[in-house]
């Protein structure tokens, strides 16, 4: 049998590995101690840098508070100086308000004249436009009236022609009936005399009825002619009323011309008052000279105040330059400290990188050693299983320690990185504060320049205030004059309006009384016509029963032709109503809506019967024209 290896030879490799691991742990502990000492030194340096940074911040705050106090002092001085300037400018304005130059007086005279003439011109132009409008409407109405007259004459001629044709037709029918009667008499001479006598009596009755109907038609024609004459008279009345209204508008124009002349007289009076104001201005100029002397003394005082203010501004500028030099020196010291801190940070970064490289090399060595140990263990698995378990436990503990060491290294590295970041933030904040200090110094210098510029503006504003004071005095005087003239004009306008209203009210009451009388007459005529229609309605049924023979058929054809004439009458009535509406609008425009329009003239009335027998638009519109004509024939 081959000889087995001894137990000591089996135990020698793990013991050597354990010794190497202990050496490595000792080295790592030494490195950790070095890292700890480095960390303590860096921490002390960081605390010292933070203390210096807080000191620098305190100094910056103190400088800012000093600068704010200086700015507040400057603002108080500026406010006091501005208040004094405002008081002086008010005094100057009060003195200059009492002065008026001849150029301003001329301007005021021109303005007053324009303001006085403008409303009168506008009113005159409006009245001219209204007269032109009324004239054009009057021409339209006159044209419509002539057109209606021509239509009426044409319809009269047509009506006369139709009557002649109807009379010829009825004469021909009468002659034909006479011939028929003679033929019938000759035909029935040998017949019974009693029966022939009855027939002759019936024919005579029919003849009498036809004569009565002819007379009724003639009476209707006469009535229609009378109605046409009435419509012509009404159109003439419309024309006369329009002429009267035009004369009234001309009278109002004349009254407005008189008002214009009175306004011109008032303008002349205002010019005389302006001459008086010239004399007052000559008195005020003396006062102005005194005020100017006072102003010169005040300007000397202002100049002395300006000189003292300039000296104070120069002292403030010197203090600002001193503070600026101190801040620049402090900035240089802080810059050197920041550079030293940056160098320390770079050194720390290099040491951290070296530690990282050493850790990586040690990890590689450990990995190689672990791999070799594992290979040996794999070769000796059969005999040394228990030793292998012990070594595995030891290796697990070592791995845990190594993981803990890695975690500690990582935490230290993160802490160093955070410290580096905080140092960078402190550096950036210091730079920002330095930049803000530079901007504030620039703002302070710009504020000083702005103060100089404001002084020049204050001088310009003083001159403008003086000029505006003089203008305000002149305008207040002219405004009081204009208020008085406007008050007088309003009183005259109110008085004229009251007179016109009373005059129009009296005329309207007279017209209303006349129209009421006319309405009563028309109402009475309407009641009479209504009674006649009620009596004729009973007789209409009997007439309709007798319209069955050929003679009655001819009468029906005549009545149908008669309806066309009634349509023409309806057109005439509609045209007359359109004329009434236009006349009402013209009257409303002339009166200006001051009088109510409950009733007009006889042809403009709002009563229910403006035309009793014209067309189908009056109270008899429910009865057909043909039936009315038949009823009138039968009643006559």
Q: How would you describe this structure to a colleague?
A:
This protein is mainly alpha-helical and 636 residues long. It has a domain at 26-100 and 321-481. It contains 6 helices and no strands. Helix 1 (7-96) crosses helix 3 (193-379), helix 2 packs across helix 3 (193-379) and helix 5 (550-591) crosses helix 6. The longest helix has 187 residues, at 193-379. The chain is elongated. The N and C termini lie far apart (179 Å).
Keywords:
disordered C terminus; mainly alpha; single chain; 636 residues
Task: Indicate the percent of residues in helices.
Answer: over 70%
Structural class by helix and strand composition: mainly alpha
Tally of individual helices? 6
Mean pLDDT: 73
Strand content: under 5%
Query: How large is the radius of gyration?
Result: 64 Å
Distance between the termini: 179 Å
Reported for the largest beta sheet, the result is: none
Task: Tell me the number of strands.
Answer: 0
Envelope shape: elongated
Q: Any low-confidence stretches, pLDDT <50, length ≥5?
A: 1-11, 593-636
Which series of helices and strands comes N to C?
Answer: HHHHHH
């Amino acid at each position: 049998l081959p000889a087995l290896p001894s137990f000591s030879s089996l135990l020698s490799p793990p013991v050597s590995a354990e010794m190497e691991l202990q050496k490595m742990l000792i080295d790592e502990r030494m490195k950790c101690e070095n890292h700890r000492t480095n960390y303590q030194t860096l921490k002390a340096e960081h605390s010292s840098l933070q203390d210096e940074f807080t000191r620098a911040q305190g100094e910056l705050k103190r400088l800012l508070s000093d600068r704010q106090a200086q700015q507040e002092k400057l603002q108080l001085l500026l406010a006091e100086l501005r208040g004094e300037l405002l008081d002086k400018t008010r005094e100057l304005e009060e003195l200059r308000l009492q002065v008026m130059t001849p150029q301003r007086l001329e301007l005021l005279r021109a303005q007053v004249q324009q303001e006085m003439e403008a409303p009168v011109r506008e009113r005159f132009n409006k009245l001219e436009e209204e007269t032109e409008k009324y004239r054009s409407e009057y021409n339209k109405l006159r044209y419509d009236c002539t057109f209606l007259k021509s239509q009426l004459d044409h319809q009269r001629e047509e009506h006369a022609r139709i009557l002649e044709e109807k009379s010829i037709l009825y004469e021909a029918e009468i002659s034909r009936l006479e011939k028929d009667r003679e033929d019938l008499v000759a035909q029935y001479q040998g017949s019974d005399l009693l029966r022939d006598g009855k027939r002759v009596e019936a024919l005579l009755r029919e003849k009498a009825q036809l004569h009565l109907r002819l007379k009724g038609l003639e009476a209707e024609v006469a009535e229609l002619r009378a109605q046409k004459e009435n419509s012509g008279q009404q159109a003439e009345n419309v024309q006369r009323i329009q002429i009267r209204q035009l004369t009234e508008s001309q009278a109002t124009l004349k009254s407005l011309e008189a008002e214009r002349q009175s306004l011109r007289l008032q303008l002349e009076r205002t010019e005389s008052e302006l001459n008086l104001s010239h004399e007052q201005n000559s008195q005020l100029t003396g006062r102005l000279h005194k005020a100017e002397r006072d102003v010169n003394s005040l300007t000397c005082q202002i100049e002395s105040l300006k000189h003292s203010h300039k000296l104070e501004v120069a002292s403030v500028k010197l203090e600002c330059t001193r503070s600026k030099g101190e801040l620049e020196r402090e900035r240089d010291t802080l810059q050197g400290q920041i550079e030293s801190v940056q160098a320390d940070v770079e050194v720390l970064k290099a040491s951290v990188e070296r530690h990282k490289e050493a850790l990586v090399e040690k990890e590689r060595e450990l990995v190689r050693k672990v791999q070799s140990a594992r290979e040996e263990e794999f070769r000796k698995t059969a005999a040394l299983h228990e030793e292998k378990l012990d070594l595995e436990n030891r290796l697990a503990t070592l791995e845990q320690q190594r993981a803990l060491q890695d975690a500690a290294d990582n935490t230290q590295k993160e802490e160093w990185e955070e410290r580096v970041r905080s140092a960078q933030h402190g550096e950036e904040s210091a730079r920002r504060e330095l930049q803000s200090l530079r901007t504030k110094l620039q703002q302070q210098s710009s504020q000083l320049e702005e103060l100089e510029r404001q002084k020049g503006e204050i001088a310009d504003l003083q001159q403008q205030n003086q000029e505006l004071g003089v203008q305000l005095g002149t305008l207040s005087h002219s405004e009081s004059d204009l208020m008085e003239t406007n008050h007088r004009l309003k009183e005259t306008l109110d008085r004229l309006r009251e007179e016109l209203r009373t005059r129009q009210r009296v005329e309207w009451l007279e017209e209303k009384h006349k129209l009421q009388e006319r309405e009563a007459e028309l109402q009475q005529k309407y009641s009479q016509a209504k009674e006649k229609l009620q009596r004729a309605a009973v007789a209409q049924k009997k007439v309709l029963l007798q319209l069955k023979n050929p003679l009655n058929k001819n009468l029906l054809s005549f009545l149908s032709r008669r309806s066309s004439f009634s349509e023409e009458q309806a057109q005439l009535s509609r045209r007359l109503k359109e004329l009434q509406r236009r006349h009402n609008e013209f009257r409303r425009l002339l009166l200006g809506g001051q009088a109510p329009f409950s009733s007009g003239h006889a042809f403009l009335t709002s009563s229910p019967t403006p035309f009793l027998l014209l067309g189908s638009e009056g109270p008899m519109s429910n009865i057909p024209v043909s039936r009315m004509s038949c009823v009138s024939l039968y009643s006559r």
